[in-house]
Amino acid sequence: MFIINCPYCGERDQTEFSCGGEAHIERPKQPTELSDDQWAEYLFMRKNIKGVQFERWNHAHGCRKWFNMVRDTSNDKIQAVYKMGEKPPVK
Amino acid sequence: MLSFNSPIKEEKKYNDLKIVEIEPTIKINLRSNKREFSTKIGKILSILPPNEANTSSGNENYNFLWLSPDEWLVYSNNINHTLDNQIELENNLFNEISKLNQGAVTNVSDNWVMINLKGSKTFDLLSKSCPFNFKDFKNKKGSVVQTVLNHVDVILHNKDENDLNLFVRRSFSQDLWLWINDSARFL
Prior knowledge:
A: Folate-binding fold; 4-stranded antiparallel β-sheet; two-stranded antiparallel sheet; 6 strands; B: Gyrase A, domain 2; 2 domains; 11 strands
């Protein structure tokens, strides 16, 4: 269990949130021109790394807003939290 | 009075804690990200929607709770409001906001059930099954929080010292009411 600083509501317990998976995955501009393999790559394949990962989170039991988070998956340390549409503050 | 069939219909008293359902009240959910929204609301309800997170504003008739940057809940203080009052308010808001594409107005009077918790043990009860830290919340009159209580989504509005209104969805209200009473016995 850990505390997440929602960019809208402030610090809340992790149980109020749900993780929406990897962030910053761009939808292909011309999906009809992709092969099945390329489409599957976009749709299903995720990095799932051990280390610093960019994720989407939703404050499901609070303001119900989506936001991005930079989290170290090996120790759950949150490096940054930023709103949708904003650029990541860390690389 | 509004035609509201209460799911609880009870009032309970424990040591330093009184729990009562306060119904019927008018509850309206408002959503908008338009600039003119605040002015329009100010004209109709004579209150400005709170912009600061986890806060509320209000007058003698209505309370305005912040739910998210573009969502608010308005509820009436008066349980003697009639169905005509509700229709009039809803129509006023609908004509000024929804019809002009300034936002969305939804009547949620029957969706949320309001329970009042009063007494010095109020926060002891909530702390039994709520992950939220009430340290700052309980000292700030008018603060609002959306969280979970016994795994049920709730909205808490801190009216005064040890006096708060709890909003729970109607379908979860009886279950939460039973849990509240069960927990209150052990305070």
